[in-house]
């Protein structure tokens, strides 16, 4: 019973501390949430291979999994602190102080954090330590009942037994010790007090949790509302019309567009408060608000975005109609120093993304985008403003929630993923994918089907797509014309399968004549290569 009370005390104390800290953060400094700060720090510190593994195996569930992991670890440590504090209350205080410090350190090192951001974690640690001390005092009560000698010998308690109470809170009555094996003993007053306090603290923690949820929901709602109120300008240069006959799924719906970022919680930026600072190696540093940005010339383009972490045949690629302001115009206003070979974009989540200045100025449609498929950017895709660089992997040119553009050099600065070993310059590799039939589909032999998919050689363009069935010759697929070389193409090939198992393979040729390589490469450090190959059966 004692033992259980100790574990329970540790858990309740941690719950109370976290609840208090999260509530304070939600009310005053959402960025300083102890749990989310620790989670973000863990993400930043996770070695690349582990991160790769997490993205590969858990996909977008990687973040909920991380939070669950933090919760389990916290619970285990907190439960262990209970028995430790029973032996020596100081252990409980020190243990939770360490938790609080870890949270505070994580919170204060988040991008844009200030010294006050330690407050929620400090509160969490203090509340947990105080709760644990009180609960232990309550249930140890007269931990050394009359008649029993105190074991002040310095020898530790034997396993399964309890050490001497080092505190006499004077609250509990009763003998405490008896009834440890449960059965017949009636609930003693001291125990009742402990249980009542534990229940009250737990209820308080649940209430605080509810309050936190409400406050967070309110913050999201208010950004949702400001997003709904954003009026996108009509593009000065509309996107070229899609070639006739383009299937609707050429464009990826916003809700289906892949999402890849390190942000544990989606940054919520009030568009009225958004500012973009262009600075560094420029003649005229510029600061713009959203209204000022949207008064500039706007263009609309179909662009395909893809992630360097996309495996061969993987899903992290999408195409949308983006509305934005050409980056070149803004850089011209700022007057870029010719020595500044790197443009570093910073997001509100602290992400940094470095792009060669030469690339964003070479005439391609690099832009600061505000619209995606006719809507303001969804929160998950960078609201209110993100950068896009056609032809480069997302981590190398497409910063979401952008707040800063700094002109610097590659020699002077490594952006987030470059620091973690990924390539500094990252043109997206030519890729092709079979979407239909799906792998392992059972087809009907003798009945015609259409093999179809997408292929991209971004900013170079696709010249052709070929499909190989079993070990037959490479056959040219029909390639539907794209609106520009900055998007994927859709392709198709009719086929009537013979009975049996079949292997389908696809490869693309870009407009320079280069054939997509079959050499398998992992996403790290500069993008996967290899031919997408699937198996199907016909019966
Ligand atoms: N601020 C910020 N921008 C970011 C990222 C990020 O983690 N934070 N991830 C990048 C990566 S790796 C990719 S592939 C694209 C994905 O954009 P999407 O989520 O809109 O598809 O955003 C890029 N921009
Ligand atoms: Mo990415």
Automatic annotation (TrEMBL):
GO terms for molecular function: heme binding; molybdopterin cofactor binding; sulfite oxidase activity. Keywords: Membrane, Transmembrane, Transmembrane helix. The chain crosses the membrane at residues 65-83, 90-109, 121-141, 194-215. InterPro entries: Ig_E-set (IPR014756), OxRdtase_Mopterin-bd_dom (IPR000572), OxRdtase_Mopterin-bd_sf (IPR036374). It comes from the Bacteria. Residues 141-188 are annotated as: Disordered. Residues 170-185 have a biased composition (Low complexity). This is DMSO/TMAO reductase YedYZ molybdopterin-dependent catalytic subunit. It comes from Catenuloplanes indicus.
């Amino acid at each position: 019973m004692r033992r259980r009370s100790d574990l329970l005390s540790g858990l309740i104390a941690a719950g109370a501390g976290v609840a208090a800290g999260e509530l304070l953060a939600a009310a005053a400094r959402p960025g300083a949430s102890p749990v989310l700060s620790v989670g973000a720090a863990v993400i930043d510190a996770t070695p690349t291979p582990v991160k790769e593994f997490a993205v590969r195996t858990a996909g977008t569930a990687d973040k909920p999994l991380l939070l669950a992991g933090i919760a389990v670890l916290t619970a285990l440590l907190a439960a262990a602190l209970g028995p430790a504090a029973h032996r020596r209350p100081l252990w409980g205080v020190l243990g939770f102080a360490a938790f609080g410090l870890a949270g505070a350190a994580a919170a204060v090192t988040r991008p844009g954090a200030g010294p006050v951001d330690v407050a929620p974690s400090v509160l969490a640690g203090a509340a947990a330590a105080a709760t644990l001390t009180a609960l232990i005092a309550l249930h140890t009560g007269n931990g050394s009942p009359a008649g029993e000698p105190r074991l002040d010998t310095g020898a530790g308690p034997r396993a399964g037994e309890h050490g001497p109470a080092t505190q006499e809170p004077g609250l509990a009555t009763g003998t405490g010790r008896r009834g440890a094996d449960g059965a017949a003993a009636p609930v003693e007053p001291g125990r009742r007090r402990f249980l009542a306090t534990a229940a009250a603290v737990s209820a308080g923690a649940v209430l605080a949790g509810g309050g936190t949820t409400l406050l967070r929901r309110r913050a999201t709602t208010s950004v949702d509302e400001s997003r709904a109120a954003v009026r996108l300008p009509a593009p000065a240069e509309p996107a070229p019309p899609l070639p006739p006959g383009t299937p609707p799924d050429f464009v990826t719906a916003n809700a289906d567009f892949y999402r890849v970022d390190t942000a544990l919680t989606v940054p919520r930026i009030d568009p009225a408060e958004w500012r973009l600072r262009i600075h560094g190696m420029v003649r005229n540093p510029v600061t713009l608000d959203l209204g000022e940005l949207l008064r500039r010339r706007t263009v609309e383009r179909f662009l395909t975005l893809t992630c360097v972490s996309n495996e061969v045949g993987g899903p992290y690629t999408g195409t949308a109609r983006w509305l934005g302001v050409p980056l070149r115009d803004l850089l011209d206003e700022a007057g870029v120093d010719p020595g500044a070979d790197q443009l570093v974009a910073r997001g509100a989540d602290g992400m940094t993304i470095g792009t060669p200045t030469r690339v964003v100025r070479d005439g391609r449609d690099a832009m600061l985008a505000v619209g995606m498929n006719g809507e303001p950017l969804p929160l998950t895709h960078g609201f209110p403003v993100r950068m896009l660089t056609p032809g480069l992997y997302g981590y190398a040119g497409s910063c979401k929630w952008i707040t800063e553009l700094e002109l610097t050099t590659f020699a002077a600065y490594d952006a987030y993923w470059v620091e973690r070993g990924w390539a500094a310059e990252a043109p997206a590799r030519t890729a092709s994918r079979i979407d239909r039939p799906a792998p392992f589909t059972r087809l009907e032999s003798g009945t015609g089907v259409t093999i179809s998919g997408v292929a991209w050689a971004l900013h170079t363009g696709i010249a052709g797509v070929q499909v190989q069935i079993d070990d037959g010759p490479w056959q040219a697929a029909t390639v539907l014309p794209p609106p520009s070389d900055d998007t994927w193409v859709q392709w198709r090939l009719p086929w009537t399968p013979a009975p049996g198992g079949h292997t389908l393979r696809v490869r693309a040729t870009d407009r320079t004549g280069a054939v997509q390589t079959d050499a398998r490469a992992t996403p790290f450090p500069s993008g996967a290569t290899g031919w997408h190959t699937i198996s199907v059966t016909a019966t």
